[in-house]
Design goal:
The structure is a single chain. By secondary structure, the protein is of the alpha/beta class. The chain has helices spanning 4-29, 38-53, 57-61, 80-88, 99-108, 131-135, 159-172, 204-213, and strands at residues 70-74, 91-96, 115-119, 144-149, 173-183, 216-222, 229-235. The protein starts with a helix and ends with a strand. The relative contact order is 0.13. The structure holds S-adenosylmethionine. The site of S-adenosylmethionine has 20 residues, from helix 1 and helix 4.
Amino acid sequence: MAGLQITRQLLRMRRDWDRRARENARHYVVTGQTQWSDEEFFRSGQITLEEEILNDLVNVCQGKDPKDMKVLEIGCGAGRVTRAFAGFFGQVYAVDISHEMVRQAKEAVGGMSNAHVFRNNGKDLSVVFGPWWRRFGFGARTQVDFAFSFMVFQHIPSREIIENYVREVHRLLRPGGLFKFQVQGSPGMAHEAQNSWVGVSFTEPDARQMAERCGFEMRYQYGAGDQYYWLWFFKK
Ligand SMILES: C[S@@+](CC[C@H](N)C(=O)[O-])C[C@H]1O[C@@H](n2cnc3c(N)ncnc32)[C@H](O)[C@@H]1O
C-alpha cells in the first residue's frame, strides 16, 4: 500500500482529528451533545457495550469467558468504549490516529492495567504486539479473540485504507474470531478524497467482496443503506 494520495489522506486525517480533539474531543466523538460530563460520556460507552457486545455474546465471545479474551479496538477516540471494554474483557488493545485522542483515551483508562492504548499510523496495526510487546518477552504471533470498530470507518474517505485495516485485523485475529465493525452505508453521503469527516460508502456487494478478498466470511449485516451499516466478519 503506497501512494501520494494515501500519504496526503493520512496527514489530513491526523491533522483534522487532532484539531477536533483539542477543540472538543467528546463532542466530535459523539456529536449528540456539545458538553459531556465524565459520567455521561462513560455511560455512553457502557451503552455501546450493552448494545453491541452484551446483546451479541454468542458471536463475540463464542463460549469464552470475556475475562480470558484479548480484544482490539480501532479508532478509540477519547476512550469512551475502551474504558467500558476494559471493565468487561481481559485485555484491551486500542489504537487511534490522533495524538490528542490517544492522550485523552489514556486518561480515561488511567489505572486500568488491562487497557493498552497506542497511536497508530492510520492504516495498519503494526504498533499492536510490535517491538514493545516482544521486548517484554511475549510471542510475535499473539492473537486477539475479537476486534471492534464503531464510528471510525464512516469517516475514512479511502476504500484502500479501510480494506488495509480489514486485512490487518485478519492478521491478528484468531481463526473463527469476529471482527464487528460499522461503515458508512448511506449512498447519499458523498465523500471527497481530502475530507476526513464523510467516509466512503459501502453497499452490500462492496462489503461482501471485501470480506472475501480479505479472508473473512460476512455472516451478518445490519443497516445497509444507512449511515450505521454494521458488518459481522468471521475469520475463515
Ligand atoms: C467519531 S470518533 C469515535 C471514537 C470511538 N470509536 C467511540 O465510539 O467513542 C472517530 C475516531 O476515529 C479516529 N480515526 C479517524 N481516522 C482514523 C484512522 N485512519 N485510523 C485510526 N483512527 C482513526 C479519530 O481520531 C477519532 O478518534
